[in-house]
Design goal:
- Helix content is 48%, strand content 10%.
- With 734 residues, the chain is an alpha/beta fold.
- α11 (318-325) crosses α12 and α13 packs antiparallel against α17.
- The radius of gyration is 32 Å and the shape is elongated.
- The chain binds zinc ion.
- Residues 133, 135-136, 151, 153-154 line the site of zinc ion.
Length: 734
């Protein structure tokens, strides 16, 4: 009964169902950002994901908050729930379900669940005496309270003495089964410190807890005794179940649990650990429902080393932070700077410094300067190198090859900070590598192949970093992909030729068109995003490369026709055809004479040929393909890397066959699969587009170093992250 169904390849996770006594604070934002990052990572891995968040809207604290604001409880809840929803949008949280516990469908689920627990004989009426913290909505043990019966979590508030008749849940009955659970599934509670906390709490002996309140109007009435209102936590935890219902599904437990249950991960703050790691599994055991897989309790946040509280006046407003610094900045700071699971601090000066150092300097400047060099030394394209041909002692490749797996493990264990560190280490290695190799000097010395290797390995490392960071900074990653030349819009007009050209190699015909403004991310509105196409076989590539210039001529022509000048050219071609036809007829009639082509026709023919060659040579990809193919051809037939070939080689002419390690044609290393079919519309990448992510090849493909398509024309360079101005001096109002 307590086993979970791990065979399902889906991933369901929850944030807490947030209590709406006040607008969202930074702690709620922190949990939700982390949840969104996990969800985005699992989606990159190709899993169907359900991210649940919502608001817990019942209870005494809400009733009092509404009263003091002069609102009805429902009005109050509507306002606050909207504030949560708005903040999640500002933070680019892609949730799937937003459960509000005041919804009628939720009431049906709660009542059915209550009935099951009732039928198990786990609910009884008894007398509740004790200290109640309204802010926690929890009875406190005398031993847990501070002097003056103040709650340790709310030291400025005194707990209230209660002596009333309540319904109780028989938690004590589950003592041994809970202990067995923690024993059998040591990863049920994480991190380790939280698990130990729970173990020692349970070891003290579990006491039944009351699940109803009297003299409280704002909540669901207890079915057996409507004078009682269901305890807010009993109600709130079941929000995770109600949220699983499809919008049109009948609100029953069996319907709700059918598809996504058991939840894979409950992400919470450590203040609500007992509810999730002790009460919740016991309630589920009583109702005969399988248990979730994991409860992860993260730490508390402080500001400038101090506890955050309204009384201290040092509350951080997450909405304000996002509007001043962008969602990527906020997401990055909290996940990179604070080890998830431990307590962490927010300090605005450090915030600015870290973002400037990591995102503006290390990552942003790296991309910017490399694109500048690619413009100068590689005609604005990714050099024509295959990642597989870069020698494995290249420091970036050596690091990049294992990075994907390392970062995946970090995401899996919610070690966001160490994941970021590993990615940033590659980025910093890139900056050092450029300085060491000095491509500007290599270029002056005519060592074009080395220049290509340097530029390719840096650009590919930036791509990998952007991909691996995309769950955390989706907007910056998307911008980096755009600047690396990935199309942000599908190009359906090329689809009929896609298969053929995909098999032919890396050349991107799309590049032959002048960049269209519609290719910018804000205009991206894909109608379809098919999966990345399968790789072309290695053996086929060499021969297709030889044939490529010939095979592509019609495509260049079609491209030319599609332009505004196309009509004129078409007319000229038509005239050419008519004249040529006439000439043939003339030739056939007078077989003893060679036909004389009219001077006009001759001029048109020569003009078109010159124009065609110009078009082919002008645009980077065309030029790249032309020279690359010529060199390949030379290698096919003469072999080796003659010095002459090097000198004559134009900037982008490194073919995939001329890496320093390749000893002639026979010793070519096998080409790795190319996950990005060059002209596939699916090269479209937008890390906020869930349909595209779902359709894309899985994480294992994209997270492999060396998959940046060679010769891909690069996009327009601009700062991916604007340097932040120094924060204003911190002045906590005390
Ligand atoms: Zn409290």
């Amino acid at each position: 009964m307590t086993s979970t169904n791990k065979s399902k390849n889906t991933f369901a996770l929850t944030t807490p169902v947030y209590y709406v006594n006040d607008v969202p604070h930074i702690g709620s934002a922190y949990t939700t950002i982390a949840a969104d990052v996990v969800a985005r990572f699992e989606r990159l891995r190709g899993k169907p994901v359900l991210l649940i968040t919502g608001t817990d809207e019942h209870g005494l604290k809400i009733q009092r908050a509404a009263q003091s604001a002069g609102l009805t409880p429902q009005e109050h809840c509507d306002t606050i729930a909207a504030a949560f929803d708005k903040l999640w949008h500002q933070l680019d949280i892609q949730y799937d379900r937003f459960i509000r516990t005041t919804s009628p469908r939720h009431q049906s689920i709660v009542l059915e669940f209550f009935q099951r627990v009732w039928d198990s004989g786990d609910i009884y009426s008894g007398r509740q005496q004790g200290w109640y913290c309204v802010s926690c909505e929890e009875f406190k043990e005398e031993r847990d309270l501070l002097d003056g019966h103040r709650c340790p979590l709310h030291p400025n508030k005194e707990a209230e003495w209660r002596d009333e008749q309540n319904y109780f849940f028989r938690l004590s009955k589950y003592q041994s089964r809970l202990e067995a659970l923690y024993q059998e599934r040591p990863d049920f509670i994480a991190p380790e410190s939280r698990r130990n906390e729970v173990l020692s709490f349970v070891a003290q002996g579990l006491q039944d807890f009351s699940i109803s309140r009297v003299n409280l109007e704002w909540g669901f009435p207890v079915p057996a005794d409507p004078k009682h209102t269901l305890y807010v936590w009993f109600d709130a935890l079941l929000g995770y179940v109600t949220a699983l219902l499809e919008p049109d599904q009948e609100p029953t437990l069996s319907q709700a649990l059918a598809t996504w249950w058991p939840i894979n991960l409950h992400l919470i703050g450590k203040d609500i650990l007992r509810f999730h790691a002790v009460y919740w599994p016991a309630m589920l055991m009583s109702a005969g429902v399988p248990l979730p897989e994991k409860v992860f309790g993260h730490g508390f946040l402080t500001k400038d080393g101090q506890k955050i509280s309204k009384t201290l006046g040092n509350v951080i407003d997450p909405a304000d932070l996002v509007s001043r610094y962008s969602s990527d900045a906020v997401r990055y700071y909290f996940l990179k700077e604070i080890e998830f699971g431990k307590d962490g601090d927010f300090n605005e000066t450090r915030f600015v410094n870290i973002l400037n150092a990591d995102l503006a300097n290390d990552l942003g400047n790296l991309l910017n300067r490399t694109l500048g060099m690619a413009r100068k030394y590689a005609s604005g394209c990714v050099p024509g190198v295959a990642g597989a041909d870069i020698p494995s002692d290249n420091p970036l490749k050596a690091r990049g090859l294992t990075l994907g797996e390392e970062v995946a493990r970090a995401y899996e264990s919610l070690a966001f900070s160490s994941g970021c560190e590993a990615i940033l280490a590659l980025v910093r290695a890139c900056n050092k590598y450029i300085d060491d190799r000095a491509p500007w000097t290599l270029h002056k010395q005519g060592q074009q192949r080395e220049v290509s290797e340097v530029l390719y390995s840096v650009l590919e490392s930036v791509r990998l970093a952007a991909y691996l960071l995309s769950p955390i900074i989706p907007n910056i990653s998307t911008e980096i992909y755009r600047q690396l030349g990935f199309k942000l819009q599908p190009l359906p007009e090329l689809t009929p030729q896609t298969g053929q050209r995909a098999a032919a190699g890396h050349l991107d015909l799309v590049a032959l068109k002048e960049p269209a403004p519609s290719a910018l991310p804000e205009a991206a509105a894909p109608t379809a995003a098919p999966a990345f196409e399968a790789a072309s076989p290695a053996q086929g590539q060499r021969w297709s490369k030889v044939l490529r210039p010939f095979a592509q001529a019609p495509a260049y022509l079609a491209d030319a026709l599609a332009e505004t000048k196309g009509l004129l050219i078409a007319v000229l071609l038509l005239l050419l055809a008519i004249f040529a036809g006439n000439a043939l007829v003339e030739l056939a009639r007078r077989t003893d004479r060679i036909p004389v082509v009219s001077p006009t026709l001759e001029a048109i023919g020569i003009g078109y040929t010159i124009w065609f060659i110009y078009r082919y040579a002008l645009f980077a990809a065309g030029r790249q393909a032309l020279f690359g193919n010529l060199q390949s051809l030379k290698q096919e037939f003469f072999g080796g890397n003659s010095p002459a070939a090097k000198i004559k080689t134009p900037p982008l002419a490194l073919s995939t066959d001329t890496s320093p390690s390749a000893e002639g044609v026979s010793a070519l290393p096998p080409l790795e699969a190319q996950p990005f079919a060059p002209d596939s519309p699916a090269r479209y990448i937008d890390f906020n587009d869930r349909a595209a992510i779902a359709a894309a090849a899985p994480f294992s493909t994209h997270s492999r170093w060396g998959t940046l398509p060679a010769s891909q024309p690069l996009g327009e360079a601009k700062p991916v992250f604007q340097r932040l101005q120094s924060a204003e001096p911190v002045s906590p109002s005390r």
